[in-house]
Amino acid sequence: MERLSRRGLLAAAATLPLAAAAPLPAGTAGRKARLLTAICAYSFRNELGSKKMSYNDLVDMAVDLDVDGLDLTVYWFPSTADSFLIPLRNYAFANGVGIPSISVRTNCCQPTAELRAQEIRSIKDWVGVASKLGAGHIRVFGGTVPKTSTEDEAAGWVVDVLKEAGEYAGRHGVVLGLENHGGITERAGRILDIVKRVDLPSVRVNLDMGNFSRDAYKQLEMIAPYAANVQVKVEVRDEAGNRAPCDWERVLRMLKAAGYRGYLSLEYEAKEPAPAAVPRLTRELNALVKKVMSA
User: Fold this and answer.
1) Cβ distance 140 to 179 under 8 Å?
2) To 5 degrees, how large is the angle CA 75–CA 43–CA 81?
3) Distance in angstroms (rounded) separating the CA atoms of residues 285 and 232
4) Is residue 258 part of a domain?
5) What pLDDT, on the 0 to 100 scale, is given for residue 3?
């Protein structure tokens, strides 16, 4: 197939729907997948927030549940000083538990250059935290489109933030994963548009199974080839936008077909207390990964 020039590609993309503007990354679809399981700290937001559990307790739970890693939502970090980060990294390593990802709050839909610069500085600071923990991925949010702006304008601001922050992250061995989290990332097509325009290997997608407001499976399949990290949810939204149990096997097969290599982090948000639900669901996820990968 004849390769288009960059100018030709952009011109062609302008006439297509947003979802079609981003081709599959080379070398992913069809390659052998590798699916590892993890626990997301956000599942234990109540326990961490009340200090009934610590991040070290999550390391111990990962060992007990035979998962490979922890996705560390940073909201309850007591500090980002070395006095907290280094002992946590060492404790995880001593127990054979990886820290592949941290999850932070960001809002890249900033309408002024000054606000975008602040957002970039914040992400750069979190790159430093990720590096100290040995995490290769940071989950970031695109943010909400201001009422006085258009989605196209806001997408441009997100591209600006992620391009500069992504270049910095890449130099430090860290990937930024833009999550499908409503707002500017409400639709898979817009997510792919942003990631393609950033055009960096260090800016990809944090695929959250439960966050699309409708047509979840169709949209998840679109972004699966770009996933750097996956967060597993127990519910999705169907074609009509109604809540339904997530068909984990269906999504895992999508990821396998896309050649995904990375973590499946259980992020639990349902009503049953996490200390009871997460162990049961993690065992189900572990068994399902074995089934899908052996097929």
Assistant:
1) yes
2) 30
3) 9
4) yes
5) 38
